[in-house]
Amino acid sequence: MKETSSEKYSVAWFKLAEFVGRGEKERALGLYRLLVHSFEDRAFAYQLEGDLLLSFNDQEAQDRYMQAARLYQEDGSMLKSAAIYEHLLFLEPDNSFYKQQLVALYESLGLSERAKKYRE
User: Fold this and answer.
1) Beta carbons of 53 and 72 less than 8 angstroms apart
2) What is the CA radius of gyration of the chain?
3) Residue pair 53/67 in contact by the 8 Å Cβ criterion
4) Please, what's the b/e burial string for 19-28 (b: 16 or more CB within 10 A of its CB; e: otherwise)?
5) CA 77/CA 57 separation, integer angstroms
6) Do residues 72 and 84 lie in contact, with contact meaning Cβ atoms separated by under 8 Å?
7) Segment holding 57, helix H or strand E
8) pLDDT tens digits, one per residue of 45-95
9) For residue 98, how many other CB atoms are within 10 A of its CB?
10) pTM for the whole thing?
11) What is residue 1's predicted lDDT score, i.e. its pLDDT?
12) How far apart are CA 78 and CA 58, in angstroms?
């Protein structure tokens, strides 16, 4: 019986989770680099890379999240961008840049109550 493409992806995602669970950063990132070629959404790819790096306590995670947030904004996905900044703010609660970005995003979406929450 021949493996279908979706079965191969399922196995790859399982292996990725296995590598992360065992703390094998280089193997996880290597497999991620192979999987990323199947993504059409670059912002999602950066977000996933941020998640992987964060699971290994790598400070580069914040950079990947910032790239994802920027790309989401460029694509007009303001809520996704805001979600990334919310996550970044959770990681670094006193970061005024993240708060400013959230205020601007929520105001552009007409969510003034959410924007008000992050004004200093």
Assistant:
1) no
2) 17
3) no
4) bbeeeebeeb
5) 27
6) yes
7) none
8) 999 999 999 999 999 999 999 999 999 999 999 999 999 999 999 999 999
9) 24
10) 0.87
11) 44
12) 26
Which residue's entry shows tokens 């959230």? 102
User: Token digits for 20?
Assistant: 């992360």
Q: What is the pLDDT of residue 38?
A: 84
Look up residue 118 and give its amino acid: Y
**Cα angle at 87 between 84 and 89, to 5 degrees?**
110
Look over the chain and give the mean of its residue pLDDT values, rounded to a whole number: 92
User: Rounded CA gap, 2 and 6, in Å?
Assistant: 12
Using alpha carbons, select from 80, 13, 89 the residue that is nearest to residue 42.
Answer: 80
* H-state helical runs in the chain: 5-21, 25-35, 42-55, 60-74, 78-91, 96-108, 112-118
4-18, 38-52, 101-115: range with lowest mean pLDDT:
4-18
Contact 87, 79 (CB under 8 A): no
